[in-house]
Amino acid sequence: MMTVYLLLAGICAAWLAGWLIFFRLPTIPTRKETAASKDLKERAELSIIIPARNEAENLPQLLASLQQQTLHPVEILVVDDGSEDETIACAKGFGVTVLQTAADSAGKAAACWLGASQAVGKYLLFLDADTFFLAEDGLERLFAAYEERSGQGLLSVQPYHQTKRLYEQLSAVFNVILPVGLNRFSIVGEKLSAGGAFGPCILCSKTAYLQANGHQDMPQGILDDLALARRFKKKRLPIALYGGKDLLAFRMYPAGVRQLVQGWTKDFATASQFTHPLIMAGVILWISGGIGVLAAPFLMEPLWLGLLFYAAYFGQTVCFARRVGNFNRVLLLFFSCYFLFFLGLFGWSWIQTHLLKSVTWKGRKINL
Prior knowledge:
Layout: H1 2-21, H2 35-43, E1 46-52, H3 59-67, E2 75-80, H4 87-93, E3 97-100, H5 108-118, E4 123-127, E5 131-133, H6 138-148, E6 154-158, E7 160-161, H7 172-180, E8 201-205, H8 206-211, H9 224-234, E9 239-243, E10 248-250, H10 257-265, H11 268-271, H12 277-292, H13 296-299, H14 303-324, H15 335-356, E11 358-361, E12 364-367
Parallel strand pairs: 1-2, 1-4, 2-3, 6-9, 7-10
Antiparallel strand pairs: 4-8, 5-10, 6-8, 11-12
Helix pairs in contact: 1-12, 1-14, 7-14, 12-15
């Protein structure tokens, strides 16, 4: 009986920890068309920089969504990073400027730095090639939010994850842990220092970017988004983080399970080092509860009590997952399997990072 009581107490603590560490995920609000909107569009001298490696299948959706925006950038730069597909031809087909990294300076960080150094706009927006805007006023809302945050520092958005195939549901817990690990979405909000930024979408002024040395001379194997945020913090420049629901989306790892495994294991263990210890403790507790609650219906009497605990955890997991993506509610009934999958990949990520000291991504071996 004591074991049952301890399990009950542990699940309760884990469930509460979940609400504490993922208390909210603010999104960028919609805007009404006003006279001020015209002034904003004139002020927003925006250069969009898209680092791309083998992104011929993804680029059309992003570039098409950019063409539909109410705010028009002064330029769109696609920086090809040694692609082996039709990325360059695809970009040129949309009439955007194409730059190419040198063989001795490959990698996303180098591509971002090349694009920024060539950009003519006062503001820089870095977008991953697999992202796309969900609203025609997306750029306008993004820039307005940046101005409302004093127009300084860095603003970053985590795109809403749109899933299509069954295996993509396995990304649910990863997509929850990723924003939680940046320390800004707990019950204490921005009282904790941001652990980093979201790599797929970063907006800043060119002045602030150069002041922080941007992506200059970043090693290829480093997490460029977290490293960039650290450089901004070192210069005491503010960091604002948002969720992308109804604004910006992406479809992660559409090529299959292998790509999903490589994508999540390439840097997740490294990224966890930037998480605040209290948040990390909450994450560990929440994941443990998500697995431990599986035993509740079998150990607790009466049966309905165990099912109640399972239902409570299920409801919380659905709430969190739907904040970050269109994950299937019915499949989330098996959420404990999602937690186990997360633990397995996190363990493999740790082995690659600390023992093998290398990962593979998009056909390129990256030494850590």
